[in-house]
Amino acid sequence: MSDTPHRMHHDMGGQPAGPVSPSEHEIEPWEKRIEAILRCMQLRETPIVTVDELRRGIEELPTTLYDSLTYYERWIASLTNIVVEKGLLTRAEIEQRMAAIKAARAKEAA
């Protein structure tokens, strides 16, 4: 048995990886929206999702997906999985809505 605990892909603290290059960027409107959606889901008498559930959902993302997503994209992936897990929406409902949004945006751009 090893004295070193098993680390998951998201647990990078203390690992040699070179210097961190913080890159500040203007918060995009969609990032503000996802933050607002999360707060609306949390700040209820009975929360739809808790911060612990959000974190669990992020930590459970497959390594390749986790590494390919930005901070707020991980939130979206986690929230999507949680609402499906809780039976609030189905994947089909989410995919249908996403297709409708993409079609509307394509029409606006034309």
Structure description:
The chain has helices at residues 29-42, 51-59, 63-68, 71-85, 91-109. The chain is mainly alpha-helical and 110 residues long. The protein has a single domain, classed as Cyclin A, domain 1 (Orthogonal Bundle), CATH 1.10.472. The longest helix is centred in the last third of the chain and has 19 residues, at 91-109. The radius of gyration is 17 Å and the shape is globular. The model has no long low-confidence stretch (mean pLDDT 88).
Largest sheet: none
The SSE order reads: HHHHH
Amount of beta strand: under 5%
Gyration radius, to the nearest Å? 17 Å
Runs in which pLDDT lies below 50 for 5 or more consecutive residues are: none
What is the CATH superfamily classification? Nitrile hydratase, beta subunit
Task: Give the CATH class.
Answer: Mainly Alpha
What best-fitting shape do the alpha-carbon axes yield?
Answer: globular
